[in-house]
Amino acid sequence: MNNPRNDKWRHRILRWIVFGLFLFFAGRTAYLQLIEGNQYIDKAENNVIRYVITYPPRGEVFDRNGEYLIQNKICYDLMVVPRETPRDGIDTARLITITEEPKKRLVRSLNEARKNWRIASPVVKYLSAEAKLKLDEWNIPGFYTVPRTVRQYPRNIGGNLLGSLSEVSQRFLDKYNEEGYYTRGDYIGEQGIESAYERELRGEKGRIRRNIYDNNTATNEVEKEAVAGKNLVSTIDASLQAFAEELMEGKVGSVVAIEPATGEILVMASSPTFDPNELVIGRQRGNHYMALLNDPRRPLFNRAVTSPQPPGSTFKLLNGLIGLQEGVLKPHYRYTCNKGYRAGNIKMGCHEHRSPLDLDYAIATSCNAYFCNVYRNILENKRYKSPKEGYEVWRNYVEQFGFGVKLGSDVTGERKGTLMHREYYDKLYRKSWNALTVLSVSIGQGELQATSLQLANFAATIANRGYYYTPHIIKQIEGQDSIDIKYRTPHYTSVDKKHFETIIKGMWRGVNVDGTCQLAKLEGLDVCGKTGTAQNPLGDDHSTFISFAPRNNPKIAIAVYVEHGVWGSTAAVPIASLIEEKYLTDTITRPWLVEYVKNLKLDYYKAYDRHKKK
Question: Model pTM?
Fold first, then answer.
């Protein structure tokens, strides 16, 4: 007989099994409809929908007078999504004819693109508008064009100052693309303004949702508008920059001019330079870049900020200021110079001039012996326990004037030069050294090195009677009320203003009365200056000159450094004087001096030219 209790349990279990099967099938049906159904819809949609990145026009750059320094022009990139291309292939020969791309390069780009067959990849860049129209008429499945802006440089000046664009490297994408903005094939600023202000200039990419079977661009859905890059107004005077580069042609060196009242850089010319249009993104960029890279005179090198050199006698002005502030020098103090300075076995030569001489005349004639005495008195000041402690005090003053440190400008590649710490000499001389050991620093030689930017900033500091603004090359960014506050904040030295007037008197005399830089004299402009001749083991000495004008309410401060320029007065003085005249008067009254500078032949064989490939 059947047990009624067992039958009851069997019916209950059967009901639970049926109910469970119902839930399973119901759930499966819901999953297929709601979850996988959406995935299939997405997959189907992805087969016909492409997300196209739109690139914004890059911001343009103007000079201080509104003239274009960097301008845009439209070009096009040909993109391909390999999975959308015809299975029977494309007419490669026709594609080569339209794009004018070499066959090997085109095939290589197509093969590279097939590695990521779902993703859009660039095939040909820098296409003309005519080529784009032909491609649009052909309408190859899987191929489309993307507009890009490419740079052009109307004045052909400032190659290493303005910078250029280059394609982002894989190394950059792997290590530095933290925000994920850049992708393969993107362009990025390289050196100069293009690099320093990349974030402002690049803008923001847009995104379009496009049906690949619908050629009507009006039906494209814009998911995100591209935002144009910001325009920049530079501090550079384009005409003055071009003139400086013209005067420096054939020479190796640099010119930096600053507006003392603001720290705005009026000129930053490095020589040799190059036409920045040669490095515009395009088919010949690589060839031009390699030619510049292999040039032994290094035109890609911005010497104004990346090539520290001995400042020579221009540095005597700073030792004079420190001596006055420390109380070990008075303007009427006289020292003897018999063609140089002697102390024991130490001898520092000097050119012939009247002796003894006071501070005013010592600056004007650039007397080595005078400033050897001043420097020694600073370090051997009885207020300090030893010359080593005196050196530390001296070094602190020097750093206040922007030497031995980065000035913090917005110019890429800035170096801080060389200003040794006490510990360096302790190690070098096993703690057995004194003022005479490092005497060469007194006249801007020895281990001391400075960039032309630092020397121009030094001239601006003297012109301002004791303070400077951080030098900068951008004065206005579109959409911003003012530039960064660090460029509007003065940096004060601890030297009293009255001592600057004493030094300026000597600088004025050197130009306008009986000094080493009388070629810089400009009637009615009260030019002040100081020459420098820096020793050079590889040939003729370097020529340098710092200056500002007018004496009161100065409008321009300048530093010129010409490698192998022989004397300060030989090369640097006439170049600086012509630039000052053009800026202050908008004319040149000494065409003979322009011809002299252009025809000046300097010997660079030992330093550069012997390395040229024949």
Answer: 0.86
